[in-house]
Design goal:
Elements: H1 2-12, H2 17-24, E1 28-32, E2 37-39, E3 47-53, E4 56-61, E5 67-73, E6 78-79, H3 82-87, E7 94-97, E8 101-107, H4 108-117, H5 119-145, H6 148-158, H7 162-165, H8 168-175, H9 179-190
Antiparallel strand pairs: 1-8, 2-7, 3-6, 3-8, 4-5, 4-7
Helix pairs in contact: 4-5
């Protein structure tokens, strides 16, 4: 499974065998059971993780004490509370396993050391930050410009595995609709 991480990194920047070997000494594997938290609200996020297997849900609690899903993180992607991780301040977000999940994780200090030792990691860090910004901007655009049906179709196309493991309530909150509206959308699409 670590080979998928190597492919992920190589797609961003060429990384030699020696650099990759050195890189892996900074990472460790972490297993989460369904329901375990990777990031907890009001705690400083100390790690960033590459998902080898499984799915994580990122959400926050709004002023009405409702869980609002902002992201589903799937295999071969990174997961963290970026603001909390970068600033090393308490997180507003919660990142939780929706199924048993295996991650490669690195802590904040180790990542800073990799940046200081390796030009490749400076490139990787910049590219990941740029990618995250683009994803956030696209999500904001989708949230404001697409109908619930269009958002559901996008989720179906881009992350079909999510629909197999995530609760319908979490999908509804991600789409910004009620469970009833999501059921109606699914029924319409099946007809």
């Amino acid at each position: 499974m670590a080979n998928t991480f190597r492919q992920f990194l190589s797609a961003i920047a060429p990384i030699s065998d020696e650099e990759y070997s050195d890189t892996m000494s900074f990472f460790s594997e972490r297993a989460l059971k369904k329901g375990d938290f990777f990031v907890e609200q009001d705690k400083v996020c100390r790690h960033i993780g590459f998902i080898l297997k499984g799915t994580l849900r990122t959400y926050y609690i709004n002023e009405k004490a409702e869980e609002i899903t902002s992201c589903f993180c799937t295999e071969n992607n990174l997961a963290t509370s970026y603001k909390s991780f970068i600033l090393q301040e308490p997180s507003n977000l919660i990142v939780q396993a929706v199924e048993d999940t295996k991650l490669l994780v690195i802590d904040y200090q180790s990542l800073q050391e990799l940046y200081s030792r390796s030009a490749v990691w400076q490139t990787i860090g910049r590219a990941v930050a740029e990618r995250e910004y683009i994803v956030m901007e696209q999500y904001a655009s989708v949230l404001n410009n697409e109908t619930a049906k269009e958002k559901y179709l996008r989720l179906l196309k881009e992350q079909p595995s999510v629909l197999q493991v995530v609760k319908i309530e979490d999908i509804a909150s991600y789409l910004g609709v009620t469970r009833r509206t999501l059921s109606r959308i699914r029924k319409d699409l099946n007809n």
